[in-house]
Design the sequence.
């Protein structure tokens, strides 16, 4: 594959991305989105976040599903979820989840040394 071909592909993809992203901005005032679709779009960020986070929580380095008590990511996610349901504060939830995960990882490292 030569350099000209790679740069042409990059250029075409950049143009396609620019057209796709500017399309709604250019004609968005002429298009009416139905209220039902607007209601569904409110959940799109949460669904995208869940699709990114869930595999990271449940998969190990080899790609196998680890759904047991020995998975520190799963335990930290459970602790973060419980904290969020209790306090409803996103920043504190992230901090609590990372603290629980860090403590579990560090304790696991020290358990393997002895």
Sequence:
């Amino acid at each position: 594959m030569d350099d000209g071909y790679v740069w042409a592909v990059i250029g075409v993809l950049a143009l396609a991305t620019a057209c796709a992203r500017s399309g709604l901005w250019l004609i968005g005032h002429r298009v009416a989105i139905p209220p039902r679709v607007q209601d569904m779009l409110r959940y799109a960020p949460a669904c995208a976040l869940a699709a990114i986070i869930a595999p990271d929580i449940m998969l190990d380095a080899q790609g196998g599903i680890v759904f047991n008590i020995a998975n520190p990511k799963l335990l930290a996610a459970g602790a973060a979820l419980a904290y969020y349901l209790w306090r409803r504060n996103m920043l504190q939830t992230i901090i609590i989840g990372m603290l629980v995960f860090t403590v579990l990882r560090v304790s696991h490292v020290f358990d393997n040394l002895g």
